[in-house]
Amino acid sequence: MTNRYRITVEGQTFDVVVLDDPRQPQVRVEVDGQPLTVSVESGPPASGTAALPSQPAPTQPSVPAADRWVTAPLPGIIKSIAVKIGQRVTPGDELLTIEAMKMDNVVRAGRAGRIAVVRVSVGRQVAYGDPLIEFAGQEAERG
Asked: Distance (Å, rounded) from C-alpha 34 to C-alpha 55?
């Protein structure tokens, strides 16, 4: 069973191929040619086909605490990091830059929050979907 989709996430478009039965808890997919294994949190629609949202709501994560993590939108090398642990950011603030195919790709904050963890360093190679930065939890923000 192979299903192809074109999805847009935070303004970036990706070609996604679902390689496994989307009704399984773990599904193999390819995102722009990069193989990944993803967890499926909810079942498919009644028609039996997988449905991927064209623009997921950033405030409604499909996985608990998923909005806490900023992941690599493409494979490349970390060129610069613009934030530090404990720093507060607002939506649109620059977090870091990934160099891919001789082009700089700025990764920006999708929400306001405080930086809890920076999991990468300058010069490190990252793959699509690798965790880069973690925001502090909601409960930590209130306290």
From this structure: 20
pTM of the model: 0.53
Indicate whether 79 and 38 sit together in one domain: no
Q: Are residues 51 and 72 in the same domain?
A: no
Q: What whole-number distance in Å separates Cα of residue 3 and Cα of residue 112?
A: 35
Q: Can you give the residue range of the structural domain that contains 72?
A: 66-142
Span 56-111, pLDDT tens digits: 433 333 333 557 889 999 999 999 999 999 999 999 999 999 999 889 999 999 88
Does 80 lie in the same domain as 36? no
State both tokens at 125. Answer: 């190679």
- As beta bridge partners, residue 106 has 97
